[in-house]
Fold these 2 entries.
Entry 1:
Amino acid sequence: MFFDGSRYLRVADVEVSSPDGSRARLKALREPPPFDPATDTALVYQVKQGDRLDLLAWRFFRNPRKWWLIADANLDLLAPDQLLQPGLLLTIPKDRAL
């Protein structure tokens, strides 16, 4: 279900019940790892019109599936679409293996 390198591979499963008694297995919420801007930032990038997280991940990490590294480094923005406002300065973290 998850690709190699997915940030959810090692996240525990949880079982939940609905009011009607049916049960489902889901992944638990994943806490982003701690991010220290002083030591974990590789560079700051100014978003341009048409940028996409997967394309930025390819540009900086040579892996489009690592878009979440950028999202995790910019937690003050609530949703991925907020990360792509032209003119916004994004923190691009150092690449890390999982």
Entry 2:
Amino acid sequence: MRRIHYMTLVAVIAFSLCPGGFAQELKITMGLSPYQVAQCNAEGKGLILCSGTWSGSNGPLSVRILKEDVPLEDWRVAGAAENGQWLAIIDTLPAGGPYTVAVRIADTITSVDGVLAGDLWILAGQSNMQGVGNMLEVEPPHPLVNMLAMNGVWRPAQEPLHILAESPDTVHGTFNSEEERQAAIENAKNGPKGAGLGMAFASEMVRRTGRPVGLICTAHGGTSMEQWNPAGREAGGTSLYGSMYAQVQRAGGMVRGALWYQGESDANPEAAAVFREKFEGFIAAMRRDFENPDLPFYYVQIGRFVNPGADPAFWNRIQEIQRACEPSIPRTGLVPAIDLELDDAIHVGTASLKRLGKRLANLAERDLYGGTVQSGPRPGEITFQDTPYGKQARVKFTGVNGRLTAVGRPAGFTLSSGPDGPPISCVYRVELPADAPDTAVLWLQSVPENPHLWYGRGFDPCVNITDEADMAVPVFGPIPMNPAQ
């Protein structure tokens, strides 16, 4: 037999006690909805600003929070009704849930189920964030992970997260009819592609922190930094930035941080020349517009692209700019994708997206919850050494968790003569010595004039070096080397 919900029963009783059986009407119109995730403050309390309409006389508004039909608190005043409108601030939601949030004016009660309190994360960028992984063995739903879908409605999170056709914003698509839109939505829900990294990240964060996660979906495939221009904030749904900004406002205006995966569309001469300026400006604008100068911003360095015959120079340029931005912009972190498998020529595969989500979770846990995982290997000092067996270049890395590791033969390093010279085949062996866990030893057949070191050069390099926390070595280069040492 179907169990009657506690608050439904209370509402029925309240209705029956009204003179003549005519209940006064209490509606929630903004700020509180089923499956919503409220961002917690520093004290671990979720905050919700909500409002609605009321057909009765002016007076106080009270709220009460329940979990599994058990009240966590007595009714308490949280707002007031005046001239047919009411406004309330709910600021006592403990991190966790799901909760029923009940709102009462006089003897009339309405309630919302499935509310969580935890951390909100923006998902933004282009296709690898939108999700184009094969819909095979996707990250399963989690009871403490909900999503603000692209239609602005909260619901339990499941792949695919981003369904562009659901969005009313024209920047995400236009349709000739509602039937055409619904057909596009169904195709996206039931198609072979659509897995992303957001679910894996969220599930991992819940596992590590116990706090629910809300994912705010805003990504759109094939988009450039110029299309994410913060100048479009006031343009609303005709702009990617404006659409993202509006989504965050629907979610309450506060977020824990942002996840970003973009750059492929800027790997060309014109866009690469201004990529760093636009990227840094984008981060600064988000921190300003969301009123958080320390907003955590974690991003993915673009990975592989099977693109035979094309020049990879600007692809590598974007990767190097992304690497260089990490130490120069506070409260940011980069995770590489260069070592991951693809599901097509350019999109990270579903199994690898799960690894990528965990890499991002390592950074978020480190900065926000005292996690011990470091950033992962970053190139540091390079020295040369002559041995009885040949010449070595020793590359010492910072940020290594445990030791450097590789499945099979360590690979990925090349040298060039000058910063723009072609790759030179002179590295014949790479070792990860047991007595130097943060160092890769490159055995060199020769050293070119004006040597520069690269890792992961090209569109589709063979690279496989990570550390014991599965944090990968990023693409880097050209880094000048000094063989006179």
